[in-house]
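Hi R.,

Here's the chain you asked about this morning:
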Amino acid sequence: MDDLQWQVDTLGGVLPRLVDAIRDRGGLETLIQAAREREDWFCAAGAVQELCAAGTFGRAWAVVEPFASTGWQPAVRVGADVLMRWGRVDQALELARPEGPPENAVDASRDYAALLLRAGRVEEAIGALGPHLRSGRVLTALVEMTDGQGCDERVLELLAPIAEEFRRDPERPGVRDLWDVLPAQARVLERSGRVDEAIRLLGADVAARRHGVLNTVEFYAELLARRGRIVELRELADTHKHAAVHPYVRARESLGQAAEAEAYLRGLIAARHPGWYESMLMELLIRQGRFDDAIKAAEHTFDDLYDDNLLQGALSLLADQGQHDKAIGLTQGRSPEFLAENEDWLRSNRWWLMGESGRAREAIAEIEALSADEVDDRELTIAWLLAQDARVEEAIALLRSLPGKRAANDLAELLIHQGRFTEAIAAIPDVAAQRDEAGHGRTTRQESASSDNGHAHGDPWATPNTAPLE
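And here is the predicted structure, written out as C-alpha cells:
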C-alpha cells in the first residue's frame, strides 16, 4: 500500500500520459505485463480501462485483484467498478464495504454509496453518506451521485439543516468549513426546477457574505449565466469583480455579444480597477481570431518583472491557435532588464515554438551556437528537437546516453510512438528503483544542506536551500 500511494503522490512508475499513449497504440498486453511484473499501478489502471471497454471483465478483474486485495482505496474503487460492470453486484459491494482505518472512512463511504446507487439502492446509498455529510467532499459527492435519481427532495432535506447552521453562524469553529453546502443546495434546487428559489437563496448568501473565499460567488455567477440572467450577472460583476467578471464576459460572448464584452473589459482597464483584465481581454480577442489586437492589448506587460506579465499566456494562446510565428516574434525585442531575469526561460519557449512550427533545425543551430553552460537541459532540448525534425533514431541514441528520470520518460515516449512498447517500459526504472533514487537524492541533499547550514553559516535554524527532487 505504501508503494501504491507513493506512485500516486509522486507520479512514480510509468507516467499516466505514457500509459495512455501505449493503450491508444495497441499496447494493452505490455501494460498487463507491467502491472503484473512491476506492480505498476498506472499500467494496471490503464489496462483495466481498456479491458473493460472491450467487455473482457474477467481479465480486467485478474489485473486489478492483486491491487484491490491490499485494501488500498483507489484500487478497491477500480476493482469494485470492474465487478459491478461484470454483473457481480454482491461481490462488488462486499469489496467496497467500508472496513478500513478511520482516516479512510470518508473516501470508502463515498465509493460504497456510488456502487449502491448503481445497484438501484438509493436510500441505502444516501444512508451510507449520512454520517459524513459535514465533509465538503461528501456533500459534493451526494449532489453528483443523486443527479437524475429522482430523490432531489430527499437530498434537499439532508442539506437544509446544514445550510441553515452555516447561515446562522458561518464563522463558528466546526461550521466555517461547511460553506460548500450553499452551492450544493442551490445546485439541487436548480436541477429540480426551483431555479428562482436557488437564485434567491444564493443571492442572499452572497449579499450577506456567507461564503467561502470566492467559490460561492463564482457558483452564483455561473448559475446566473446558465439561466441567462444577464442584468443580475452584470450587477454581480460590478460588485464582485474578481469572481464574476469572467463568467459575465463569457456569457455575453456566448450570446453573440463579444463587442459588448470587450467594451466592458476595456472600461475596467481604463478605470484601473484591481485585477488582470488585460488577460481576459487578450483571451477574448484571441478567441475571436483578432491576434494582432490581442497582442496590442497585452504587450505593455511583456517586459514586466512581476506577476502581471502576460507574455507566457500570450505565447501559449497563440500557439494553441497555430500562430507560432507571431508567438516567436514576441520572444524577440525584449528589454535588457527582462532578459537579465528571464533569458533562459525565453529561449526555452522560443525553441519549443520553433520545434512545433517546423523550424527545429534552426532552433538546434541556435542552441549549438551557445556554450554548453548557457543552456539548461541542453541535450534534452536537442533530443526533442531532433524528434520534431523526424530524426527519431538520433534523438533515441542521445536520450539513451543521458541519466535521470526525465530522459528516461522522453526516451520511452519516442519508443512508444514507434510501437516499441516493451522497450519503452524497460527504459523507465521500476517503482523500487525510483524510490531508491528519490530516497538517495533526498538524503544527499539533506546531508549537504546540514553541512552548509551547520558549518558555512553557523545557523542551526536556517532553512536548508535544497533543490526539488527530479
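One quick note: Confidence is low (pLDDT under 50) at residues 443-470.

Cheers,
M.
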